[in-house]
Amino acid sequence: MVVRLAHVCIETDDFDSTEKFYNYLGISRQFEFRNRQNELVGMYLSVGESTYIEIIKVKDPLSEGNMRHFALQVEDVEATRKLLISKGVEVSEKKLGVDHTWMVTCHDPNGNFIEFHQYTELSMQQQGGVCEIDYRPE
Fold first, then answer.
1. Number of domains forming the structure of the chain
2. pLDDT number for residue 126
3. Which backbone phi and psi does 25 adopt, to 5 degrees?
4. Would 78 be classed as within a structural domain?
5. What would the pLDDT profile of 10-26 be if each residue is shown by its tens digit?
6. Closest by alpha carbon to 10, among 26, 2, 27?
């Protein structure tokens, strides 16, 4: 039934910094929404393969919600890390997760937490199975 994630929607009060951040990653505008006054009020940024990040302009972005993070698969996580750092973005150190996937993290200009994943031959995302972790919901 489901083919792939269609899009993630992000609220912003600053289109310029948001679009610029995602442009660093090679994610560019696919199309935009304009109101009857011809004001830019939203856009879809293409991540590739019919997957998008929707950006919607609001006066007061939500300060809470249930989305903890979203993840973007990249070809080279270290190159992505270096690129973001060169643009002034604070990025975590590269680490290999218990799922055997390389990862770095950062926040976009709207405070959204993003993981960048580089899969390996052993990545659980590729292999399936059970990934044991030290975690207890509290």
1. 2
2. 85
3. -90, 5
4. yes
5. 988 899 999 999 999 99
6. 27
